[in-house]
Amino acid sequence: MIQNRKQPLVFKKSRKRFETFFLQLCDQFMIRRNYTKTFLGFIKSILSQSYSNFELIVIDDNSKDKTRKILSKFSNNENFFVLRNKKNLGVAKSRNKGIKIASGDFIAFCDSDDFWEEDKLVNQVKLLESYDVVCSNYNLIDEESNLIKHIIEPEIITFNKMLNSNKIPNSSNIYNSKKLGKFYQKNIRH
Fold first, then answer.
1. I need a surface site. Which of 10, 49, 119, 189 has the fewest CB within 10 A?
2. Is 189 contained in some domain?
3. Alpha carbon distance 123, 178 (integer Å)
4. What is the pLDDT of residues 67-98, one digit of tens each?
5. Could you tell me the CATH number of the domain that includes residue 160?
6. Cβ contacts of residue 127 below 8 Å, gap of 6+?
């Protein structure tokens, strides 16, 4: 599990565009399939962000557990949307469905077993005034939220450093999709 540090069952008939102080929008995605143990904490960590101008798009990859019941608890939240796959598509195809419908200037991802600190988005959106992609340091935690290891990544990550090892964990990043375009994932199992 990753706990970030720095930081849609469609219930609605229409999607509202949320404007920010900077006149930008942020979309977060999460792909989820049969992972109810940490799922509620994940959603709460996203919806309790101090940066409130975002929509959370949850892609339910044909879960067979209590996912739908948990998601229904958030049906009155105006910036919460769920897409349900009729069959299991896997992470890449599911995430690409969310990326395709994202309407925000910024896109961030969070996996269903990860959590965000409450100021993650506000801190990263500020940095996006100067950078096109922002990621953060993070904590590896166990299922009881005990710290395993604090990971500190380099302040500047070059292409060559990325070739050596992935320095941008999925749940710690955010990018300017308005400026860079949308990046779709290849369907590679790992």
1. 189
2. no
3. 19
4. 788 888 887 888 888 888 898 888 888 888 88
5. 3.90.550.10
6. 134
